[in-house]
Amino acid sequence: MAAEVQMVLYEDDSVQVQYVDGSKLQLSPCGSEFLFEKSPPVSAHPLEQPERIRQRTHFVISTYREQLQRALDFRNSSATCLFLSESIIPSERKKCIFIDISEVRWPSLDPDDSTICMESGTVKITSLDGHAYLCLPKSQHEFTVHFLCKVSQKPESSIVFSEKNNQAPKDGLVEKTSKICTYEGLSGQRLKNKENELYCQVLKSKETLGKTNCVNGSEGSGELPFPGANHTCVYTWVKQCWSVTSCPKEWRYPLSLALHFHNKVSNMSKTDVDIITSRILTSDVSEERRKEVSVLPRTLLLSCSAPHLHRWNFCDSLAQRESGEEYSYPELVKVVWYKGVTYRLTHKNVNSIEIYPGDGSVFKSEGAYFGNYFTYYPRLEGSLEREEKIYSVNNLPPDRPGSPFSVCSLIKQAVRILQHCAKTRLSLSHNYRICCWKMKPGINDRNILPLLLKESVIPSVGRFLAYSDDKVHATFVDGITVTLNWNFSFSTKKRQVNQGLKLGWCKLTFPDGQDELIEIEHPGPYESYVTKVTSWCRRLTQTSPREMQTHPSASIPEENWSVASELEKIQKFN
Description:
alpha+beta, globular, eleven-stranded antiparallel β-sheet
């Protein structure tokens, strides 16, 4: 099997993988379908299309099983909704549990709760039921969370049908409930071995299968179902990695516990830290204090309800192949893994990126313009003091011999990713894409499209349009178009110059179809275009939202078109 060179996770949870031999793998946003594109042979014609194999993930053949499993693990490590196919997960990673685990409870901020500080400086927060734990390293830039998650299920109709066919007669049930799988009586004790006492693991020995059984809290009610016979009891441990600056809401509370405990330990003396790291603090927490609950990420179904929305990106044209466009998929990038280096992005007000070379150090972008500066945080060893360095994109240092990585190549790769995300956010077609796993039955696709809030026509200048997705599109009379993001719901009390600006870049499209990204604060020779659009947006920001929504699609020209100006345009074109 060829090794991976690059793996890209997009905002819609779709994955693209590129291998050493030139082959590619594309995973649908829901994870239920994949497309494998083989590398063309050396003797192939440049216009010859490569061989492509498209299959359902649940029914993947053994040829692509390992590659697909690694792609799914990469997807689930930072995905919003997980896809866990039982047929692909190895048997040693499956756990049989006869309770429904959909949420976990975390300890409180008291120092007597179950908090573990390991010797390496990593703070570990374990849930009260032992079904999840969070690890925060000493650097406090990223954290990992491990939790038990149910494998993906079939649609409800097929599950109900299989349950009716496999339903056992009532006479065969034995009323022996001496051994019930429950956790209510374990609230005041710390389990020594979670994997043996927190769940009922399926035993491989036939003798054990014949003697003991645990189904619905009873003993001796028949044979123990094998993994896959009952989808409601198969779980697996999932590992996710997130940035501290962009933590999902379900992990905010345990992360705050870890940060609080880390700050408390860092203020103690070395003797106190050694005492804490040598023991595990436990306590009996009452039910009234167990109010901090995290709802675990849900899993998607094995089959997608909207497979017609799966869009596969093919590199068909010879020009596109020669250009080597790495991120041609029109979607924002979430995570990129490239030759052992991880790039993690955050898309809020500005596009920011964090670079993890793999040695414990971190690069963080600074500024709204592609990250003009990158701050380097080296690995913490012994002392907690940081020796930060700032690198400028326009003046990168040369490579040092013997260095584990090239600072210049890492930052240039990060700038290319940020540039792709900026172009995607300024694209008019980006927000019209519909994700398959976000679709609900009976939803109307037309309601997803953005609405036109304001349209103005300025004579001898151009046409300006504002949409409900904070997109502004201006077409000037000379054929140049400007696209930028502007937040019209921004508070008008703050009187700043560009208070509603969401992205520090705008896109200029020339009449020949070529586009260019321009800094709004430093537009250069295109200052007149940018100034006119931003001034129109500022005037529109002062307008009340009611006035904008009264006539969302009405074209209201500021002045009437004159016949003389129209004749001048015709003469110019002639």
